[in-house]
Write a structure and sequence with these properties.
319 residues, single chain, two-stranded antiparallel ribbon, 14 strands, mainly beta, 2 helices, Outer membrane phospholipase (ompla), Chain C
């Protein structure tokens, strides 16, 4: 999904700053006191799949009538579905994760011809296979992984028209379509090693292939994809880090960061993605969630793209 651009904060080399922030933040988030979660607390081998599935719904509504201080009538909602399946058998640990999110907003100030706007839209899936051997391979585990990131619905730029002169959309007034389902979609496959000193913290490095797929021809120029091709294919190396930590009884922090260096891109900023989720449970069904995402891809934008969402909603644990 194309995130809102930050024209006032465009950096000369934003990826360098993002990489430093990513690695420093993840390393700093591993406090010494967490060592209480010793190897004795590690999850036993799982012969059968263990599943997690939860859904969440949040919404806000505001209405005004004869309100002297002013205000806009608004209605918004968001829904999220998180699922995971994990199994360890014959020294192979596999984990599959899926996250679906979608949200809409409408206000009385919106264009009558376009009264509803998208606030959140994400399809993210990842599969990971790790060989959990002994000796060297106890901590440095051979790994094969693949992931997908795209969105459900069309996205729009409401502030300006980003299309270059000569493009069929160049003369259109904002808002203009800038994304859609599988336009773009990012596929990444890696083969490498994962350093896993603890169950809740991993570092990985390996050879990687990345495909930026844009199925809609007119949108390809926005993602540096040849107009006559469906995808831009890159090969290189990827460095990743992940953290899944129970900070307190009702507070869980999940973070993942990836930095992709394409062949021939050594002197250019790498592609970087940093995702953070903090979930605070008030009780078994009421939760507060904070999401922060940082994204940089010079082929899409020279600006560092940021996304932040704070919400309160109802969560249902299906599994």
């Amino acid at each position: 999904m194309r995130l809102a651009r930050m024209s006032s904060q465009t950096l000369q080399r934003p990826a360098t700053a993002l990489v430093v922030v990513v690695l420093m933040s993840l390393l700093a988030s591993v406090p010494s006191g967490v060592q209480a979660q010793s190897d004795e607390d590690e999850v036993d081998s799982l012969e059968t799949f263990q599943y997690e599935l939860s859904g969440r719904f949040s919404g806000t509504q505001a209405a005004y009538q004869n309100w002297q201080e002013g205000g806009l009538n608004t209605l918004s909602f968001g829904t999220t579905l998180d699922g995971a399946a994990e199994r360890e058998k014959d020294r192979w640990r596999q984990r599959h994760e899926l996250r679906l999110a979608f949200g809409l907003l409408t206000t009385e100030a919106d264009d009558p011809d376009d009264p509803i706007r998208k606030t959140d839209d994400l399809i993210r899936a990842e599969s990971n296979f790790r060989y959990t051997g002994s000796g060297f391979f106890r901590h440095f585990q051979p790994t094969i992984s693949a992931r997908l990131r795209t969105q459900f619905a069309k996205g729009f730029d409401y502030s300006e028209n980003p299309y270059p002169a000569g493009h069929p959309f160049a003369d259109r007034e904002a808002p203009v379509t800038t994304s859609a389902f599988l336009a773009p979609a990012s596929f990444v496959e890696t083969v490498g090693l994962t350093y896993a000193p603890k169950e809740w913290y991993t570092l990985s490095f390996g050879a990687a292939s990345k495909q930026t797929v844009v199925t809609r021809r007119n949108l390809r120029v926005l993602y540096d994809v040849d107009r006559d091709k469906t995808a831009r294919i890159e090969a290189g190396a990827e460095l990743g880090a992940s953290l899944d930590l129970q900070l307190a009884e009702n507070v869980r922090y999940k973070s993942s960061a990836t930095v992709f260096y394409a062949v021939g891109q050594i002197e250019e900023p790498p592609d970087a993605l940093w995702e953070n989720y903090i979930t605070m449970r008030v009780n078994s069904w009421l939760t507060t969630n904070l999401e922060f995402v940082g994204l940089f891809d010079q082929n899409t934008s020279s600006a560092l793209q940021l996304k932040e969402v704070l919400s309160v909603g109802v969560t249902i644990d299906f599994i």
